[in-house]
Amino acid sequence: MDNADILKHVDHTLLKPTANWEDIQTLCREAIEYQTASVCIPPSYVRRIKQSFSGQLTICTVIGFPLGYHTSQVKVAEAEEAVKSGADEIDMVINVGDVKNGDHDKIVSEIAAIKSAIGSKILKVIIETCYLTEDEKIILCDLITRGGADYIKTSTGFGTDGAVYEDILLFRKHIGPEVKIKAAGGIRSKEDLIKFIEAGCDRIGTSSAVSLLTKGESSGY
């Protein structure tokens, strides 16, 4: 797998709280130059990116980020605003507390409501695997499928751990056939990028891939 093939799977990501407009512009220019799948950026930058780079890249942003414990109504409003501002893809964070409380119908309803709010736009659901048991991960595969999401995503990159290879294999076994997989967090080598893609990940969320593959450097998310 060559670098160009890898980068087609990358959501080129910058979610650091200190990211400024110059940093975001650099990210976008790199995404255009290296043809990454998207840029994944804070919601506050969506409209400005759309105005500055309209039609040149796919804009992904995060909802309920990074802890996921916003109310469903707030998440829906966030998602609607993001799409209105120009987002093409939404990465939402579930409420892990709902998982721990066994509020499965609430999780399905929240996913379905956000998907309904964004229509044909892509919805990825972040489950923050580092806080979950194996049984909870399996249950979430079913809930995400029932909710109508397009992707299951491992991590925010802000938890206690990132993507784990074994979780991708678990997702492949239990997720619905129409649901794709995104790994994020801690993937910082070409070998790992290839390993996760070959395991079944359609997307990789990372800030490191472009610098790693084009300059031999690795850093960040």
Shape: globular
The top-level CATH class is Alpha Beta
Per DSSP E runs of 2 or more residues, the count of β-strands stands at 8
Instruction: Give the uncertain stretches in residue-range form.
Output: none
CATH topology title: TIM Barrel
Report the portion of residues in β strands: 15-25%
Rg, please? Answer: 16 Å
How many structural units, i.e. domains? 1
- Structural class category: alpha/beta
Strand order of the largest sheet: 1-2-3-4-5-6-7-8
Largest sheet composition: 8 strands, parallel, barrel
What's the CATH H-level homologous superfamily? Aldolase class I
What do these coordinates show?
- The protein is an alpha/beta fold and 221 residues long.
- The protein has a single domain (3-215), classed as TIM Barrel (Alpha-Beta Barrel).
- It contains ten helices and eight strands.
- An eight-stranded parallel beta barrel has the order 1-2-3-4-5-6-7-8, surrounded by six helices.
- Helix 4 packs parallel to helix 6 and helix 7 (134-147) packs across helix 8.
- The longest helix is centred in the middle third of the chain and has 15 residues, at 104-118.
- The protein is globular.
- The model has no long low-confidence stretch (mean pLDDT 96).
